[in-house]
Amino acid sequence: MATAADKIMFEIYRDASYDQQYRVVYFTELDENNKHNEINRAMAGNHVYDGFLKELSAEAGKEKINAILARLNDGEALDGDAIEKELAECGALAD
């Protein structure tokens, strides 16, 4: 079982600003300089999916998330179940 230190917590959300782009925030990678702004931005957006990436497969997980964001921003409709299925391939854990 992975401990909290072995996981990266993330959220995919749709930005509430004028461009309404889909974005991701990796909460456990934020530092004091950007923590409040990034969390506030995500909280103001529309939640799409959240979960954890295992530290050992984080690079593959981030690449998969970037591909999912590109698809969403191109207009493809992906629900939470579809995202979860795709992320499971790289060891992501649903929240």
Mean pLDDT, to the nearest integer, reads: 88
> Biggest β-sheet: count, sense, barrel?
4 strands, antiparallel
Question: What is the 3D form?
Answer: globular
The beta-strand count equals 4
Low-confidence spans: none
Number of helices: 3
Largest sheet: spatial strand order: 2-1-3-4
Distance between the termini: 15 Å
The total tally of domains equals: 1
Q: Structural class given helices, strands, pairing?
A: alpha+beta
| Helix percent band | 25-40%
Provide the succession of SSEs.
Answer: EEHEHHE
Beta-strand fraction estimate: 25-35%
Task: Work out the radius of gyration.
Answer: 13 Å
Protein architecture, described:
The chain is an alpha+beta fold and 95 residues long. The chain has one domain. The protein is 37% helix and 25% strand. It is built from three helices and four strands. It has helices at 35-44, 58-73, 80-88; strands at 7-14, 22-26, 46-54, 93-94. A four-stranded antiparallel beta sheet has the order 2-1-3-4, with helices on both faces. Strand 1 and strand 2 form a beta hairpin. The radius of gyration is 13 Å and the shape is globular.
Quick take:
The protein is of the alpha+beta class and 95 residues long. The chain has helices spanning 35-44, 58-73, 80-88, and strands at 7-14, 22-26, 46-54, 93-94.
